[in-house]
Design a protein that fits this description.
Elements: H1 11-15, H2 19-27, E1 36-40, H3 46-54, E2 58-63, H4 66-78, E3 85-89, E4 102-108, H5 111-114, H6 116-126, E5 127-138, H7 139-146, E6 154-161, H8 166-182, H9 189-207, E7 214-221
Length: about 220
C-alpha cells in the first residue's frame, strides 16, 4: 500500500473552489475604508484569507475548533497578515464584543448552527448602524427568515444563488473521488475517522442535491 504519511483529504483545496462566490458576494457590498470584519465559524480560514486580500480592513476570525484555528494561524504567518487578522477561539453567543463594533459580519454556513433567531440578534447588537451581515446558507433552511427580516432589524440588501447542485458538482463529487483514491492507502485512525464523517455528508447530499442549493444573502442593519 502507498505511504499513509502522504495521505490527506486536503479539504481546503476543495473549499477554495467556492472562493469565486465569496468574491462575488464581497463585491456586492459598498466600498468601505478599513472595515472592521468579524468572520464567524472561520474554520481553517479559507474565506478569512480571501477577505484579507479583498479589503484593507481588519478581521476577527472566530471559531470553536482549536485544531482549525492552528491551521489558520499558520496561514496568517505565511501571508504576513499578523497585523490584520486576529484569531478568537469562542462562540458568537458567548464572546463579549462591544456593541456597534463591526462594519461587516461574514458567516458562511454557520448561522443555522447557532440558530437564525439567536444569530440575528447577536449580530445586530455588534454591527454598526448600516452594517452588513453576509450569510451563505441553504435556500431551503433560511427562506422563512429572509421573508421576515424586518422583525430582526435587517433588510435584504442583495443576494444571489449558487448554480444548482453546486455543492455536489464542485465539492462533494470531487471529494468522493479523492476518498476513493485514498482507499488504496494505508490510512491512520484520525484520517479514517475524518473520511467516515465526510462519507455521511456525501451520501446525504448525493441523495438529493437540490436540498443543498445555497445562496449568499447580504443583509443590512436597519
Amino acid at each position: 500500500m502507498r505511504d499513509q504519511n502522504k495521505a490527506n483529504l486536503n479539504i481546503d483545496e476543495f473549499r477554495e473552489i467556492f472562493l469565486k462566490y465569496t468574491q462575488k458576494a464581497f463585491h456586492l457590498l459598498p466600498k468601505l475604508y478599513n472595515p472592521q470584519i468579524l468572520d464567524i465559524g472561520c474554520g481553517t480560514g479559507v474565506p478569512t484569507i480571501e477577505l484579507a486580500k479583498l479589503t484593507n480592513g481588519y478581521i476577527n476570525a472566530m471559531d470553536i475548533n482549536s485544531k482549525d484555528l492552528r491551521k489558520l494561524e499558520n496561514k496568517i504567518i505565511e501571508y504576513g497578515l499578523e497585523n490584520r487578522i486576529k484569531i478568537i477561539q469562542g462562540s458568537l453567543l458567548n464572546y463579549k464584543f462591544e456593541p456597534l463594533t463591526f462594519d461587516i459580519i461574514w458567516a458562511e454556513g454557520v448561522i443555522h448552527i447557532i440558530g437564525f433567531k439567536r444569530g440575528f440578534k447577536a449580530c445586530h447588537k455588534i454591527l454598526k448602524k448600516g452594517g452588513f451581515l453576509v450569510l451563505h446558507e441553504t435556500i431551503k433552511g433560511i427562506q422563512d427568515y429572509i421573508n421576515h427580516l424586518s422583525s430582526f432589524g435587517f433588510i435584504l440588501y442583495d443576494w444571489f444563488q449558487l448554480p444548482d447542485n453546486a455543492w455536489w458538482n464542485e465539492f462533494y463529487n470531487p471529494l468522493e473521488l479523492r476518498i476513493k483514491e485514498l482507499s488504496q492507502m494505508n490510512l491512520n485512525k484520525n484520517l479514517r475517522k475524518e473520511i467516515s464523517r465526510y462519507k455521511k455528508e456525501i451520501n446525504m447530499v448525493k441523495s438529493n442535491p437540490k436540498n443543498f442549493n445555497t445562496a449568499f444573502y447580504i443583509l443590512q442593519k436597519s
